[in-house]
Amino acid sequence: MTEWWYNHKTGQVEEGAQSLGSDRDGPFATKEDAARAPEIAAERARKWAQDDADDD
Q1: For 21, 23, 49, 52, which has the most beta carbons within 10 A of its beta carbon?
Q2: pTM of the predicted model, to two decimals?
Q3: Strand pairing of 4-7 and 24-28?
């Protein structure tokens, strides 16, 4: 099974773990999901922030 990664240093999608772990996010099941990695991370951060606010 192929894993896809988003390299946030270069902005490129990588097939397999090609770069340093500190430079990439993933793994993702599809190339399309990996390309959306910055958007997915922002969505998750907003949800976590909302969850934290709800706990207060």
Answers
A1: 23
A2: 0.81
A3: antiparallel
Question: Closest Cα partner for 29 from 11, 46, 13?
Answer: 13
Burial (CB < 10 A; 0-12, 13-18, 19+), residue 24, is buried
Token reading at 12 = 């490129």
Three state DSSP letters for 1-56:
CCCEEEECCCCEEEECCCCCHHHEEEEECCHHHHHCHHHHHHHHHHHHHHHHHHHC
**pLDDT tens per residue across span 2-46:** 999 999 999 999 999 899 999 999 999 999 999 999 999 999 999
